[in-house]
Amino acid sequence: MNFIISSQVLQKALQSIHQLIGTNSLVPIVENFLFESDGNVLKITATDTETRATVTLLPNQISGEGKIAVPPKSLLETLKNLPDIPVTFTFDLENYVGELNTGTGIYKMSLFNADNYPTFAELENPHQFIIDSQVLAKAISRTLPAVGYDEMRPQMNGVFFEISSEYSNFVSTDSHKLIRYRRLDVKADEFFSFILQEKPLPLLKSLLSQYDTEVQVRFNETNVSFSFDKYFISCRLIEGRYPAYENIIPQDNPYRLVVHRESLISALKRVSVFANQALPEVVFNINGQELVLAAEDFDFSNSAKEHLACSYEGEDFRIGFNAKFLLDLLNNMDSEHVLMSFSAPNRAVIIRPEEISDEKEELLMLIMPITLRS
Asked: What is the model's pTM?
């Protein structure tokens, strides 16, 4: 197998999928890139056995067919330190030796037999739909902050895709907070759903955000694949039923607080420094058109209090939050003001953007309050 390609094109392609390659794997061959050629295109794959990403490249020149496993470290380090120049690769598939020729230098590397590299199994009887890459990237970005990490409840350790004939929901929850991102412009003729595990989400988010194209999503009961531009990504789904999340979204939260989002974020960051860091509890005291944030660390006699202007409809109210969880949600929107609705100090609070910037989307976030000390 021989090919000539831009050093930077190859380096960027390898770097984009490199995060899937692990070390000390039970399947040692997956600690390498898989290079494949059919004599026309070059396909490079990385996998952790559950998630698989393949990037297809068109070298300046290519010849020979076959596949070989290539160690990542020395190859990436060499390419990273080269200028953007054409480089020539020669892979001896029988003796497992590779050579990189830069014109001024020659680098030889040991390769590995790729016969045991995991192959992609075509999905049987798949459903499919098309979604815009930017929409899917935003859906992943919006839901990531509430993805769970609970070994006892694996169904919560991912994002729930729920596609219907009217809209699509993308949902995540870790039991402390919940995010439902709804798209009114993503629909299907029939209802279907699946749970996408957390591992491929950052990779998908990073790659999708670079493109403005259609993504073909195909899935069955156990696996899902995403195909766009020069990338093909597949992974195992989380099996089981997703929690009935709609049941925990309050339908009647009569008290409404509107506050400037950036001001609230800044105040929370300052005040929470003075809370107990094991549980960064911040208390909201709402009185009239004033919001008072308070925190205290009883172990070290530290305390802080800050006043913010707000718009509020309801009785005087006192409620506590984990500052970190609340900041995760506030940083997950881009509106100027945030709307928080309450019903009781021990009931879930709904958080939404106060301004509507896109009629095709709806963002609803929920946070559970914490029990306040008397």
From this structure: 0.93
